[in-house]
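User: I've been trying to design a sequence by hand for this structure and keep getting stuck. Would you show me what you'd pick, starting by listing the structure so we're on the same page?

Assistant: Good idea, let's start from the same input. This is the structure you sent:
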């Protein structure tokens, strides 16, 4: 009896794992797109950091002028304002959608003079403007400089003030246009757009989704609240269909690719290492890869004989130039 139960459990486990392997990967619409109008807004400004321990600007006229203007606004006059404890900085921040007056956002502070470090400094009250030259927030607070890892030095001329800016003007995005919303894919692809439209039509037949100027137009549904409607659409799951890409980071030797990127018939030889990719079975110097082999097959074969990452990257470049690599090769 125990043997029978154990056998049944093993069979069930095998079936379960086969189902997992054969299951199609799906993504939610909100993970690959956004609703037109729901976007972050960039703001920026200029400020003065004080309280530095002799690591501030030493040869910046704009820093001296800024300090003189600050003291003058406080009712103090003086020309002898040379100090190594101040620094001129630029401020950048992001306003999220539906930001309200009184909300707080993070601010990035970057030195524009010859300051050696902003560590321990305090940003004086500084306005942050948008592209329309309107003030949307005011920043002030103590700077926090990121610490470097054991083997790297941290950048001390860039700092962050968590919740350092107070929003003074709200932004209410307009997501509805002529009784419709528009879905914008982060990376436009007609296959993905078609899958999304089919899924929306199945869930809401009267939504009549269609592609207009690179956006998916979706009509609003009667008797369905806008938040509920948008949430339901964003939670729809579809099978992803992405372009074939290989991303190579030459600095650290990282290669990221999909497992199904194809390679056509080719022969590559580099520093005594030969790789043959052919439609017929022949004995190769390293490994024979059949026609329409994948990049994964190639990398596995090269790794099996100890080929360096640098050489693998060079081979991928050569395959791309020869037209045998059927994917977009992105070098960083």
């Amino acid at each position: 009896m125990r043997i029978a139960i154990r056998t049944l459990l093993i069979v069930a486990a095998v079936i379960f794992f086969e189902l997992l392997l054969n299951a199609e990967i799906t993504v939610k619409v909100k993970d690959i797109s956004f609703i037109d109008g729901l976007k972050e807004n960039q703001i920026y400004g200029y400020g003065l950091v004080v309280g530095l321990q002799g690591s501030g600007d030493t040869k910046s006229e704009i820093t001296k002028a800024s300090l003189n203007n600050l003291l003058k606004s406080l009712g103090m006059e003086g020309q002898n304002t040379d100090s190594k404890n101040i620094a001129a900085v630029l401020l950048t921040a992001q306003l999220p959608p539906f930001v309200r007056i009184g909300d707080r956002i993070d601010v990035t502070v970057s030195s524009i003079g010859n300051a050696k470090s902003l560590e321990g400094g305090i940003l004086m009250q500084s306005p942050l403007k948008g592209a329309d030259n309107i003030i949307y927030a005011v920043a002030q607070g103590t700077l926090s400089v990121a610490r470097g890892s054991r083997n790297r030095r941290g950048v001390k001329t860039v700092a962050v003030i968590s919740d350092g800016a107070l929003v003074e003007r709200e932004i209410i995005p307009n997501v509805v246009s002529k009784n419709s919303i528009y879905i914008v894919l982060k990376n436009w692809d007609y296959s993905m757009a078609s899958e999304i439209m089919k899924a929306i039509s199945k869930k809401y037949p009267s939504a009549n989704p269609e592609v207009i100027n690179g956006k998916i137009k979706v009509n609003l549904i009667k008797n369905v609240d806008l938040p509920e409607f948008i949430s339901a659409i964003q939670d729809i799951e579809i099978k992803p269909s992405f372009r074939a890409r290989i991303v190579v980071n030459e600095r650290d030797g990282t290669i990221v690719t999909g497992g199904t990127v194809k390679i056509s018939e080719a022969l590559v030889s580099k520093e005594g290492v030969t790789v043959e990719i052919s439609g017929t079975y022949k004995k190769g110097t390293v490994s024979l890869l059949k026609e329409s082999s994948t990049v994964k097959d190639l990398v596995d074969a090269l790794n099996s004989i100890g080929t360096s990452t640098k050489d693998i990257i060079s081979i991928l470049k050569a395959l791309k130039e020869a037209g045998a690599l059927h994917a977009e090769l992105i070098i960083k």
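That's my pick for every position. To get oriented when you compare it with your attempt: The radius of gyration is 29 Å. The chain is about 25% helix and 30% strand.
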